[in-house]
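From the shared-data thread, chain only:
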Amino acid sequence: MQLEEKPELNQINQKSEALVKTYQPDRPITEPKSVAKNYQPDLWPIKKRKSVAVTLLKITFLYFPLGIILSVIVAAIAIPEVANCGGNKAKHSEAKQYVASINKGQQFYYAENNTFSNSISPLGLGIKTQTTNYNYSAIATKNAAFSYGVARSDNLLSYVGAVFLVPVSPADKNEKTTVFIVCAANYPGNIQPANPILQNDAPVCAAGTQPLTN
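Structure, as tokens:
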């Protein structure tokens, strides 16, 4: 039995074959390129990086020794100052104690003798008139006694002490008692400080000196 050919089907088949032969895709299929080959990182050029590194090395070698030299200079200045400060504190303590002791000695001496001593030895304190760092002395008037601890070097403070006779009370001017003060020079030096004075029967440090607070 032979199938009857239909002209409509033949036309459809012919058109399909023509479409297949003439089909052209919109974009040709090409081989993808390697991302690694095309990637360009945003980095400095090698020559520029080398230049920066050399500059940093030059700066390091230039300023590092300079910093060491400056540190040595600062240390050379600061260390003696610190050591001197600690040493001077002990030396100042000696002078403060000696002058205060002479003041107390004058008070006891006056209580026993009704007068002040014109030197240190009669006070019986066992204080030397000269030590490594200070010269000590005392003078007296009718109503006052002064003691001195004068530095023997320019980097130490000098001290002065005073004992005054004052009335026991404003109502009784005849009965006397003693008051004392110790003053330190404002600046280092081997010059004898000015004597303290009385103001309203109270001892006061003279100009260029200040009372000890400890």
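The beta strands are 134-140, 144-151, 159-169, 172-185, 197-199, 202-204, 209-211.
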